[in-house]
Each structure stands twice: as structure tokens, then as C-alpha cells.
Design a protein that fits this description.
24 helices, 47% helix, two-stranded antiparallel ribbon
């Protein structure tokens, strides 16, 4: 049979290679072993093909004849260079093509045998070997799909990567082969799910493509079911613990419509789930107001009732009552609330009124505009005007039909036995003298002496790969970006450190609901839930792709005093980057010395470059670098003096050598604008991740 290879590619040497290089290449390729699951038949086939290539090229006469045939093939138009081999060498040829990165070609050559297992007798004369040949063929196809999945993962085409992985997994299940590989693929499929959801929801046409949205929602439901609820704190198949999972939910909410969120969280709330219940209420309030459907406001209000057992949600209930025209109940619920900051703000807005209704109306409009509507894809530009809401004929008609001031229990979407437990929220006292309420996202009012900070919420970052620096198929590099976290959903004063003040737990009522032990457990879980969903301070959320995994978010660090902040000068930054570039030169050079990487990179990024060096070693390749750098800026995070960002212009010239010969195609010369994210560990700065901002 003929295969699209030549002896030079098989040995990985250039056409003009000297005899010494041919011998060295053959010896290197011979000691390299293919995947451990290949049978002795496949390994022998590969070894024999290498031997044929070496015997041909090491003999001057046979090499001369072979070169002549190569040149003749090149002169023929539209004919691909090929090599005629014995059928017994086919498996070896597939393995070598796999090692050369010709994954699509491997699949094309394998397909006829996958479609017709009867053709396998062409590859061996011994009937008893057919089953082993079949296993080797399946393994080769699976490995090719895994490599294609890795490429798509690095290119952030997560759903395509999942398709390759799923095909491999299904094939192995069908043939009942290689259970350890099936397990690894299953794990990778789980880790891909959050990225697939994000990719589907953030595509340019995502809002108009119902198939993509439904696919994303189904993936979310699958993630919810696999976790067994929001309150599950264990690490799930996606690699997320409870805290990281809830932050992921917070990040994607802005890409979901109000109706989508209502349906998603309603199902979760019935587990029951405190976090999902609160999010469900938010969605109902948003839809009920924006779509002029007071019946949804009723659902929201009733869903909040169980939360009042251990959580102050009276302010939300007061707003619901107001939107239902139940002013007496609205004032009553407002009086029950212990949210002193919000109450003081409402009093300020109602200064000239005998009651708090004018302030509550104003507060509600601001709350809808700054806290509620921005969390829904289809409501970002919704009008928060209460006048427009109450002027709507449908709203007027529905409110007139409400003959009872109390809300009918039949409107509730929750079962009779639905009970939840929530921790007491923090409260604080502060002097409101001379304070002017100031609206800001997501907290208010603020002191006139405090600058208004507009918080921008963005999707979990997936920074660009440093493609110019990465070699053949390394593990995915760590990439992360900081995202602003949602703060408490209720307006609160953006003051400095706060200490929680616990309220009584209404001990007299506890025996009627659930045992004390269950309440303490549920309260602990719920406290984590609300702390994560609505933190009061900003935190950094890092979701890297280094292994590829989704790492747990870094814990929030306490602010440090200004006189103790560690500043990073441009000179220090230049030294750090220079040390990194020197370490990279050593790791990817002919000695593959990776020891210096641990001194300049975090563990996850160092692991990437160690794998990169190992890949070069396996290919008998290395790089030589020349660098010039100019640091443009070096800034320490004012909120966390252990983090810094450095931007620098980097001139990089790289020469790629394989088997001792320069490969111009893989060599390059570029001027890059690179951003380095640093983290301070002990007394040294380490590079946590880096990305190319521009290149030319």
C-alpha cells in the first residue's frame, strides 16, 4: 500500500542530512516508545518502518536512487509525495503520522478499516493477531481525536473539543477497551462543561440562535444535577468546589434572560436551595416588573417567605408588596427590616413625607436599575419607572382583582413542606449626619467624601495563549483574569471592614421546623452560599486552563496598610522579566534545563513550560532565543500588594532546531506587547500568567 510519507519525515531529518545525523536520528527514534497501550505488534511495525527508512538512507546508493524518485514525484503536478510499504507496516506508519501531528490524516487512513473490520486481514497474515490489530487501530483513532481536542481546547473552541472527546469516549465504550483512557476522557469532558456554557452564551449570535442557547441551558441543568444542588460544597466533575461553582453561576447570569433564569432557578429552588430560591425571586421580580406581570411578583414574594426564618429579606418583601399596590403591607415589611443603611437612605428620600412610601418608591426604582436589571441579558435597558408600571392597563386590572391584602398561598410555586435556613446577615451602625445618598453599582448610599466607583462585571477571563512561545501540543497554559465580584444584592454602605452582628435565631420556633442540628448545618451551608453569591468586597477569580482544569478561586486577602504596601519598580519588573526569559532559554535550549523555571514562575505555569521542554526533548528539537525588553509600566494592586501587572515590549528572535538542523518554518522574529501578571510569594515575585496584547 501507499502512505503519504517519505523516509526523511519518518526519521525527522532534512533532505541534506549527513550520515552521522541519519544514524543519530534513527537511534533517537528507536528508543522513543509509542503509547504504552500499543501491542507488541504495533510497536514492532513502527520499529520495522524506522529500520527500512534508515537502511535506505544510510546506504549512499539506495539513498541516491530514493532521492531521484522523490524529485520525480515533485515534478509531477498535483501528486502528493508517497511511499509504498508492506501492509504489515501500516500500523507503524499510523503511529509515526500521529507523532508528526498529522491527526486528520491518521483518521482518514483509518476510516476504511473502522467501517469494515473485515479488511483487517490485509494487515496481518495471522488470524489470532486480528483482535490486537483492531485494538491498536482503535487506540490510534482515539489518540488522534484526543490531540485534536487538545488543539481545539487551546484555541478555545470548547464545544468542538468536546465533540472530539465524546467521539473517543463513545468509541471506547462501544468496543469496551482501555477503561483508564475512558475515565480520563470523562474527566476532561466534565472540566469542559463550564467553558462550553460560556462559549455558547457569549457567541456573537448567541442571543439569536435558540439551538445554542438551549444547548447551554441543558449543560447547566446537567451541571446542577451532577452537583446535586447549589449547596453541595464538594468538588464536582467540572473541578469546581461549592464556592467556585456559585461564582461561576454569578458570572454567567448576565448572559441569561430573565425567563431562562426563572426556569433554571425555580427547579433548583425546589430541592430546596436557599441560593436558588433567592435568585428565582430576583428573576420573578425582574420579569414581573418589566413584562407587567404582577402574578410573577406574587411568586417572588411567596418564595421569599421561607427565607425570613433566618434571613432578613423584609426589604425585598416590602418592594414586592409595593409593586402589588399593597402599601400598608409594604410599610409593615419595611418596619420589620433590620437593614439600617437602606432604611436610613429611604428615610432621607422621604424627608418631607409623613411616611416612607416616597422613599421606598425612589429606592425601588434605583434598586431595579442598578441591582436587578443588569443581571439579565434582556433587561439591561429596561425602564425602572414605577409610574410607567402602575399606568399599564394590565397591571391596573390585575391589582384591582386582588381582593385580599394578603397574598394567596395557592400562587406559591413551592411545596407545602418547603423549608430553608439562612444565616443572619451582617448589620452595622453608622452616622448618617450630613450624608448625601449617592447611587452607585452595586452599593449605595456613599459618603460625599468617597469617590463613586463604577464596578464593571465581566465574564471569566480566558486570556490569549502565548502562541509565539509555546511548542508542539504542550499542556494548556495557565491564563486568568481578574473579575469584579457581585456585592451584596441589597444597597449597603461601602465602608471599610465590617464585623458581623448576629441576631437571635428565634429559638422558640425551631422545634416546629427542623431539628437544631439540621438548622446549624443548613445555616453554615447557606452562609457560604450568600457569602459567595453576594460578597461585600471584591475578590479575584482565577479560572486557568493549565492542565486543563478549572482551579479554585484564590481566597480573599485582607487589605494592608498603605505604609506597608510593597511597590514594584520598573527596574525590578525588568529584572523579573529578564530572569524569566533566561529561564525560558535554558528550558527550551539543547540542555533542557528547567531548574530556573521554579524561581520565576508559579507552580502551574512552571509545569506548562517543563512539559514544553519535555515535548522538545521527545522531538529531538530545541530553540535558541534573543531578547530585548522595554518595561512600559509596573503597577501593584492597591487592594492586594501581593499582586502586580507589568506591561513590556519584548523583541524576540527564535530559531528552531530539530535533529541538529535549523527549521526556518518554525523560526520567527517578532516584536510583542506582553502583559505579565505577577504574584508575590514570600520575598520574591513570580509570574502567574502572561498574554500577548499585540504582535508585529
Amino acid at each position: 500500500m501507499e502512505i503519504p510519507l517519505d523516509y526523511y519525515r519518518i526519521l525527522g531529518i532534512p533532505l541534506e542530512a549527513e550520515p552521522e545525523l541519519i544514524k543519530q536520528a534513527y537511534e533517537d527514534r528507536s528508543v522513543q516508545l509509542p503509547h504504552q497501550d500499543y501491542s507488541i505488534i504495533a510497536q514492532s511495525s513502527r520499529k520495522n518502518l524506522l529500520k527500512v527508512a534508515y537502511d535506505t538512507l544510510s546506504n549512499p546508493e539506495s539513498r541516491l536512487q530514493y532521492n531521484a524518485s522523490l524529485f520525480a514525484q515533485e515534478e509531477e503536478e498535483k501528486k502528493e509525495i508517497s511511499l509504498e510499504i508492506d501492509n504489515s507496516l501500516f500500523l507503524g506508519a499510523l503511529i509515526i503520522l500521529l507523532e508528526l501531528g498529522e491527526y486528520e490524516l491518521v483518521l482518514n487512513l483509518s476510516q476504511p478499516y473502522l467501517n469494515n473490520k473485515g479488511k483487517l486481514d490485509q494487515l496481518t497474515n495471522q488470524v489470532e493477531q486480528i483482535s490486537l490489530v483492531w485494538q491498536d487501530l482503535i487506540l490510534t483513532v482515539v489518540l488522534a481525536h484526543l490531540e485534536l481536542a487538545r488543539e481545539k481546547w487551546q484555541e478555545r473552541e470548547y464545544n468542538l473539543a468536546a465533540e472530539y472527546l465524546q467521539y473517543s469516549h463513545d468509541l471506547l465504550v462501544k468496543e469496551d477497551l482501555f477503561p483508564h483512557l475512558r475515565k480520563e476522557i470523562k474527566q476532561d469532558l466534565g472540566k469542559l462543561k463550564p467553558y462550553r456554557v460560556i462559549e455558547l452564551l457569549t457567541k456573537e449570535d448567541a442571543s439569536s440562535d435558540p439551538k445554542d442557547r438551549e444547548k447551554a441551558l441543558n449543560l447547566l441543568r446537567e451541571m446542577f444535577n451532577r452537583r446535586g444542588g447549589f449547596e453541595n460544597t464538594s468538588v464536582d466533575e467540572c473541578g469546581l468546589d461549592g464556592e467556585a461553582f456559585l461564582r461561576f453561576i454569578q458570572q454567567i447570569r448576565v448572559y441569561l434572560t430573565a425567563e431562562e433564569q426563572q426556569k433554571l432557578f425555580e427547579a433548583e429552588a425546589k430541592r430546596p436551595s436557599t441560593a436558588a430560591t433567592y435568585l428565582f425571586a430576583y428573576a420573578c421580580i425582574a420579569r414581573g416588573f418589566a413584562e407587567r406581570k404582577p402574578e410573577l411578583i406574587i411568586k417572588a414574594k411567596n418564595s421569599l417567605i421561607p427565607l425570613t426564618i433566618h434571613q432578613d429579606v423584609y426589604l425585598e418583601q416590602s418592594i414586592c408588596a409595593l409593586l402589588l399596590g399593597q402599601t400598608t403591607e409594604a410599610e409593615f415589611s419595611l418596619g420589620q427590616s433590620k437593614e439600617k443603611e437602606a432604611i436610613e437612605y429611604i428615610k432621607t428620600l422621604s424627608a418631607s413625607s409623613p411616611d416612607l412610601l416616597p422613599g421606598l418608591c425612589r429606592y425601588t426604582e434605583e434598586w431595579l436599575k442598578t441591582e436587578v436589571f443588569p443581571q439579565f441579558l434582556d433587561l439591561k435597558d429596561a425602564n425602572p419607572s414605577l409610574d410607567a408600571y402602575f399606568d399599564d392597563p394590565r397591571v391596573q386590572s390585575y391589582l384591582e382583582s386582588l381582593s385580599q391584602p394578603s397574598l394567596p398561598e395557592t400562587e406559591s410555586s413551592f411545596p407545602d413542606n418547603f423549608t430553608v435556613s439562612l444565616p443572619q446577615m451582617e448589620t452595622e451602625n453608622y452616622d448618617t449626619t450630613d450624608q448625601k445618598p449617592e447611587i452607585q453599582q452595586p452599593t449605595f448610599p456613599a459618603s460625599p467624601r468617597e469617590e463613586e466607583v463604577e464596578e464593571k462585571e465581566e465574564l471569566i477571563g480566558f486570556s490569549d495563549l502565548l502562541e509565539a512561545e509555546m511548542e508542539t501540543s504542550p499542556p494548556q497554559p495557565t491564563v486568568s483574569s481578574n473579575t469584579d465580584k457581585k456585592t451584596n444584592p441589597r444597597p449597603s454602605h461601602p465602608s471599610s471592614a465590617k464585623k458581623p452582628v448576629k441576631r437571635p435565631h428565634r429559638d422558640a420556633l425551631l422545634p416546629f421546623f427542623i431539628p437544631l442540628a439540621a438548622i446549624l448545618c443548613a445555616t453554615s451551608v447557606a452562609f457560604l452560599v450568600l457569602k459567595v453569591l453576594f460578597p461585600k468586597q471584591q475578590e479575584n477569580l482565577n479560572i486557568p486552563l493549565s492542565e486543563p482544569l478549572i482551579d479554585l478561586p484564590q481566597k480573599e486577602t485582607d487589605p494592608v496598610k498603605e505604609n506597608l504596601q510593597v511597590q514594584l519598580s520598573q527596574e525590578d519588573a525588568a529584572a523579573i522579566i529578564n530572569n524569566w526569559l533566561v529561564a525560558k532559554q535554558k528550558a527550551t535550549g539543547p540542555e533542557y534545563d528547567t531548574t530556573a523555571l521554579d524561581q520565576v514562575l508559579t507552580d502551574s505555569l512552571a509545569a506548562v513550560w517543563k512539559a514544553n521542554a519535555n515535548s522538545l526533548r521527545r522531538l529531538n528539537a530545541y530553540r535558541r532565543y534573543e531578547h530585548k525588553i522595554k518595561v512600559l509600566s509596573a503597577q501593584t494592586n492597591p487592594q492586594n500588594n501581593t499582586e502586580a501587572i507589568v506591561q513590556a515590549e519584548v523583541f524576540e528572535r527564535s530559531q528552531y532546531y530539530q535533529n541538529g538542523a535549523l527549521n526556518p518554518r518554525l523560526s520567527y522574529e517578532e516584536k510583542l506587547l506582553v502583559q505579565y501578571n505577577l504574584v508575590r510569594e514570600g520575598q520574591r515575585w513570580l509570574i502567574r500568567d502572561l498574554k500577548i496584547l499585540s504582535s508585529r
